[in-house]
Design brief:
Elements (H helix, E strand, L loop, with lengths): L1 H16 L16 H18 L31 H8 L3 H5 L1 H5 L5 H9 L3 H6 L11 H5 L6 H14 L11 H8 L10 H4 L10 E4 L3 H7 L8 H13 L15 H5 L3 H18 L3 E4 L2 H15 L5 E4 H11 L10 E6 L12 H8 L4 E4 L21 H16 L4 E4 L2 H11 L7 E4 H8 L3
Parallel strand pairs: 1-2, 2-3, 4-5, 4-6, 6-7
Amino acid sequence: MKCKKVVEETREFLKILGLDERRLNLKWISASEAAMFADEITAFVDTLKELGNNPLHVRRQWDQDTSDLSGPDNDTGPFLLTKNQLEYCIECSICTGTCPVSRQHPTFSPKQIIKQATMHLDEELLQSRELWSCLGCGHCSIRCPAMIDFPVFNRSYRIRARKKGLAPLESHHGIQQAIAQMQTRSIRQRRTDWAKKVGRFHARGEFFYFVGCLPYYDITFRYLNLSPLKTAKSVLSLLNRVGIEPVISQEERCCGHDALWSGDEDTFKSLAQWNMETILASGAKTVLFACPEGYATFKYEYPKIVGELPFEVVYLTELLISQLPEAKISFKSAPDEVITYQDPCRLGRRSGIYDSPRRLLNALPNARVVEMERNRENALCCGTSAWMECNSCSKAIQDERLMEAEETGATRLITACSKCQIHFTCAQSREDSKIKVTDIYTYLLERLKP
């Protein structure tokens, strides 16, 4: 039964990717049924011939890109760090004392990784499992007296490790990485079917809603009784309510965040090129994000590949703060509820957006917003990143954060990041946690007056 379920889910992935579901077949045949086996294989091969060439074999050739996100691979010293930063770093350990991973695994230290690089122990560093332990949460960077962006520094070595054939341990059997890589090919996706049942959208227009990977997450995380695509449905409904009928495109790809942060530079660059072409073809002047990772990737990483963006990138809570009052939309009263808010790393520490989600939540009648002990730039992350290295450290961080949320007396934990929602919901499946984890857009939509 488990095998059958996996095959059915794989067919769903193929459907969204625009690949004919007949390319995957499952039959139960015993060892004694050789003739049946031969007939099935012959019929399957005939079907594949009828379908024609595999579209995954068609690789788009983009203009030559000379940018290198890994930095120089030579003996001139660690990439991105000045002499003063290196000298300051060696005399300090604030990053290690701040790092949530270091608190769970004392052998991990951002400082020691930088020290290895300083001593030109590159081969040892590239082979180390510690290279993949960093969550990229940015706790260390905001407190670093030398202003070292350690996650980006560490990422540069991951890119170099990938080029040597070294890779992290991928979560969920690597399905999300495989889907991202398939999206670099010339496929025709069917990723907007959900939107036709929800609201109004177009192929061209001023606003482009970048949905991200939610259609694929909806299949992967069904076992958690969670529908990440509900976030996208809520976003489209909210946009329609404020008078925006956005572009939602079949041609959109994964933003490339996870590929980049796991060192897969080639996949990231290809996805970036696809997305830029798609958005430019739509005529959009503003690209809207409900995913913090997509927002931060476009805002800070895409310009390194494609130059200055010819459109504005806006995170959705920033838009809603201004648009809801103008649309004369208000929220309905509800029974008293205590809620607390989780600051996503890419939205908070990486992008500096703390206020707009809180302002929206505080606008809800009868809702009491309480802060966790660690909040805003000090918020604890959800424990894992880029669908890799999910381990006992990740689980300990998730459990710690859920306990901190419950200690506020809140009955609901609101987050503006689908991955936070997924990871905390997963943590609740193994712990006796009663707090309800909800994405902010679904929560706002439920509270809007008709």
